[in-house]
Amino acid sequence: MSAKILGPSSIWRLTRQVQDVLFSFPMSQGPSDCEGQLYTLGLLEQLRAECSRHWDTSSTLYHRIDGLLRELANPNLHDIPTHLPFRVELWDRHDQHIRWVIAASSSVAIGHAALDAAIANYPDQRFTLRNGILVIRKHTPELGKQR
After folding, report:
1. What is the DSSP letter of 132?
2. For position 79, what pLDDT does the model report?
3. Distance between CA 122 and CA 143 in Å, rounded?
4. How far apart are CA 25 and CA 40, in angstroms?
5. What is the full DSSP assignment across 19-87?
6. Mean of the pLDDT values across residues 41-49?
7. Which of 75, 93, 124, 137 lies in disulfide reach of 129, CB 3.0 to 4.6 Å?
8. Rounded mean pLDDT of the chain?
9. CA pair distance 133, 91, nearest whole angstrom
10. Per-residue pLDDT at 78
11. In angstroms, rounded to a whole number, what is the distance separating the alpha carbons of residues 128 and 90?
12. CA distances for 28 relative to 33, 37, 44, angstroms
């Protein structure tokens, strides 16, 4: 019989399997064997409880990190108040989808200024200034000047 060294992933699989397995050991009549087996069973119960606790912690941590990464990957302004109806939006090159909400304002004058600043900095991009579905102003770059 040869011994095999377990790596971290094998140990993790082994500890995860311990939670779903019922161990049955033959009990001898000797007092020392009985105490040893009960001690072993106690250790296995402790191992199962620790694995369960760590699994719950890692699962919770995974979901929290995943949520934060999804929020970070979202290019739009987060939690734009609804009382800011005038929005400057950057569109994809086919005018099908909004890539970013560049600015949001309660004033149309500030919206125009934000659109002018966006056009000055990125003249080869498509922008709109909208109030809900109403397009107030649109910037479409000239065909020869696109990157």
Report:
1. T
2. 67
3. 14
4. 10
5. TT-----PPPS-HHHHHHHHHHHHHHHHHHHHHHHHHHHHHHHHHHHHHHHHHHH--SPTT--TT--EE
6. 86
7. 137
8. 77
9. 14
10. 62
11. 7
12. 6, 9, 19
Structure-token pair, residue 7: 């790596």
Is pLDDT above 80 for 14? no
Residue 145, classed as helix, strand or coil, is: helix
Tokens of 75: 């290019």
Q: Is 128 helix (H, G, I), strand (E, B) or coil?
A: strand
Which amino acid makes up residue 132? G
Q: Do residues 95 and 130 touch, judged by C-beta distance below 8 A? A: no
- Pairwise pLDDT comparison (78 vs 56), residue with the higher score: 56
E strand or H helix that includes residue 136:
strand 134-139
Q: What's the burial of 86, exposed, middle or buried (CB within 10 Å: 0-12/13-18/19+)? A: buried
- Only one residue has tokens 């119960």, namely 45
For residue 71, the Cα-to-chain-centroid distance in whole angstroms is 7
What are the CA-CA distances from residue 113 to residues 84, 95, 109 (Å)?
15, 22, 6
